[in-house]
Amino acid sequence: MSDEKPGVLDPQWEDALRAGQAAEGERGSVESELAVLHLLRHARGPQPLEPDALDAVWSELEPEIAGQGGFTTWWQRLFDWRVGVGVAVASAAAAVIFFAASPAQGPLPPPDADAVAQAPALDPTLSATLQTQFDLLEPAARAQIDGDVAAGRGALRTELLASIAAPGTVGGAP
Amino acid sequence: MSARPQALPKERTIVERAQRGDRRAFERLYRHYAPTLYSYVLVPMLGDRDDAHDCLRETFMAAHRALPNYAWREPSIYGWFKTLAKNKARDLLRASGRRQRLRGSFHEHVEALGGPPPPTTAGEEEVRRAQLRGQIEAVLETMNPRYAAVLRMRLLDDRDRESCAEELDVKIGTLDVILFRACKAFRTACEKQGVSLHLELR
Question: From CA A117, how far away is CA B24, in angstroms rounded?
Answer without folding.
Answer: 66
